[in-house]
Every structure is written in C-alpha cells, then in structure tokens.
Design a protein that fits this description.
Elements: E1 5-10, H1 17-29, E2 34-37, H2 55-65, E3 70-73, E4 76-77, H3 83-97, E5 103-106, H4 111-117, H5 125-144, E6 150-151, E7 156-157, E8 173-176, H6 183-190, E9 193-196, H7 200-217, E10 225-232, E11 234-235, H8 239-252, E12 264-265, H9 267-279, E13 284-289, H10 295-311
Parallel strand pairs: 1-2, 1-13, 2-3, 4-5, 5-8, 8-9, 9-10, 10-13, 11-12
Antiparallel strand pairs: 6-7
Helix pairs in contact: 1-2, 2-3, 3-5, 6-7, 9-10
Length: 312
Amino acid sequence: MAEVKLGALCWNQYTQWPALLAAGVRADELGYDSLWTWDHVYPIIGDPHGPNFEGWLTITAWAQATKRIRVGLMVGANTFRAPTLTAKMATTLDHISGGRAILGIGAAWFEEEHQQFGFDFGSGFPERLRWLGEALPIMRGMLDGTEPVATGPHYASQNTRNDPLPIQKHLPILIGGGGEQVTLKLVAKYGDMNNIGGGVEAVRHKEEILLQHCETVGRDPSTIERTVGVGTVFIRDNRAEAERLYKEAFERSRIAVPWADQPVGTPEDVAEKIAPYLELGYKHLIVGIPANYDDESMTRFATEVRALLAKG
C-alpha cells in the first residue's frame, strides 16, 4: 500500500470568516494531514478586487481551533516580513498548535499587491530569489536556536535569539516553487519539504532537476518530503454534476475561464488522475478547496479517494 498524505488548501479569497474557519476545522475532522492557505492580501485567482483574508492570522486561528492537523502557508511571501520576524511567528504558531506548524516560504510574485501595500518587490524575480537565499539560513538558525548572524546585503541579524524555541525539535521549512536554477537548489540546501505543481510531466521534470541539485550540494534527497498541488477537487457520482459545481465555484471568485485538467468527477476519476504523482515519489497530495468549501468533495477525497490511492 502506498503511504499517502492529503493536504487541504482552503482558499482565503471570496469567502466569509465563519466559513473559512469551519473549513479548516472540517479538514481536521476528516483526517487530512495538512491544512494550508495563501499568503496574499489580494485575491490571486480571478478578479483581485475582492475580499481576501490575511494568511498568518488565518492559520493561527485554525491552529487554535484544530487538534491534530498540521498547519502552514502555501506559501509565505518572503518579501512581506523580515526573516527574523517570520521565524518568530512560526515558532509562536508551533506553540499555539502544540507542535504542528510548518514554515512555508517562497520568493513572492504578485506585483500589484506589493505596489499597493508598499511591500518591496525588488527589481525582479532574480533579486527576490537572492533575498530568499539570504532569508533561509537566518530562519533555519533561529528555529534551531543557533542565534544566526547575517550581514546582508538585504537582511541583517545580530545573534538573534529565539526564546522560546519551537516545540518541534526541527520545525520543517517548506519551500514553494519550481525554478530550476535557483529555487530547487534552495530546496536542496535548506528545504525539509518542497511544493510544486503544473501537472504530472512538469513535476517529473522538476524532480529530475531537484535530484541533480541534491547531488551537487551533497543532500540526501530522501530527507526532503515531496508535496504537490494536484488541483481543485470536486467529487460526485455524476461527472456532469461535479463539473457544474466546479464551474460555479470558479464563478464565485470571478474567474472567467475555469482551469482545465482538474481532479473533477467520480472518486475513481480523481484517483486515476492523481495516482501518477505517487509513482514519482510525491505522496503528499494537496488539493485546492475554494469557497464554499464543498463538504461532499472534501469528505469523499479524504475517504474514498484516499482508499483508492492506498490500494494502488
């Protein structure tokens, strides 16, 4: 039987707080292994001029309201906060959750929210990746209690204490993104977990690149937990009904054209579509769950689809 982990990425856009809170609690009740939301201040799917809840406060509320599920951002925007503060927040989240925090981090990409909120977007993606490369050893050092010293050029820390330390002896850092030259190399150097998407063939290619980087830096690739975004799930016995619900959910987020090639259909359809990821070693499968957080789809993915995947 394949060891399968399931993650619920509950969209924090175009929703109301009671529903978003309840979705996280429901994922915990259903036995999902991890619970995520985006670190964005504007909606990123569909029309950006709509309601959106802040990510860190969302996962903190989830941490307080849940019992066993791991919680994190998919993924934190490195540009929004100093890495020292991010590590301190992750540590606090670990205590609130009783040792269930994951520090998700990435270089950030959404220019409009940076401009309008006054966040430094840098000169382009290469510079933001350099910032991320500076930030990661600072965060790792603080989480491990080594009082890191860094002198920039973008970030500085001076024997930064992190007291108390996390409950977890090694609070995991998940690095999101599939950039072949830099991001995947950062995963090889610093990541306890990765996250990529884009379909099976894209993941297959990125995995090959990640293995090359691991060899270059001397990292055992088996020490990196592979996670993958498999798309937005809607499950019904009737495929047409699943498609209808899927399209309605995207319309609520003002998305003109629904994404193609999503895990939508019967439980067997969904399992067949995402099973190839397991063959690549990506056994932590993270599904998108937009408002209104369809309970039947969440339930059947956690029960019927999980069982089908485990058999395979």
